Amino acid sequence: MKLSPRLQTIADMIRYPILMDIGCDHALLDIYCTMERNITCIACDINENALKNARHNIEAYHLQDKIEVRIGDGLPDLTIKGPYTVVIAGMGTHTILSILKHASRLPEQLILQSNNDLELLRKEVTHLGYQIENEKVVKEGHIYNVIISFLKGEGHYSQKDEWLGPILRQQKEPSTREYYQHLVQKEEKILSHLPKKKIFLRIKTARRKKIIEKELKLF
Questions:
Q1: Among the four residues 69, 115, 140, 198, which has the most C-beta atoms within 10 Å?
Q2: Does domain 5-159 have CATH number 2.120.10.90?
Q3: b/e sequence 52-65, b meaning 16+ C-beta within 10 Å
């Protein structure tokens, strides 16, 4: 079974034999992990239509006896023996943080892919007792997806690390360079639309742009 580059990157990051996939959509990640990695999967979604599609795909691969499907708006309160991984991908940071902060138990590994506010995501998840193990940038179409793996542990990061990603800064992969160039263009666009009277915001935006440009010179 072939996954999209984004889902394949997520699958490659999974460390543990049990996966809880929150916002499973079509359950393609769960099907792949069951078939190729022998991982026990729990596919969860708040949307009944999404779960209908998930069940259809699971049945098409004859995995209905191996993949559990659950409806809900957060992490289900299940008794799980041993370490496990939770994946939450394709949601906003505030939604992800709300799910995590309302959970009765947090897993040994979190793999998160947010659509926004990555600085806040890194900062708050670290405060929940995690360290950043790995990060990857995957571009699909015009969208840059930043996928972050957190492991239980103590992590301390600078503001620049929280913003640009400590692992991304270390690895200096071509995809990261392209992503940082995208961030520069984004800051330039914001700066061009800011009224001159917004002096503080203009200074802040220009400073962020300069920081990324300086980081790019290290590649």
A1: 69
A2: no
A3: ebbeebbeebebee
Tens digits of residue pLDDT in 5-32: 999 999 999 999 999 999 998 999 999 9
The domain spans of the chain are 5-159, 172-219
The pTM for the full model equals 0.94
Which helix or strand (DSSP H or E) is residue 115 part of? none
Q: 3-class secondary structure for 134-171? A: EEEEEEECCEEEEEEEEEECCCCCCHHHHHHCHHHHHH
CB 9 within 8 A of CB 138: yes
| Residues 176, 135: Cα–Cα separation, whole Å | 10
Would you give the distance in Å from CA 21 to the centre of its chain?
A: 12
The type of residue at 6 is: R
Asked whether 160 and 166 are in contact (CB, 8 A), the reply is no
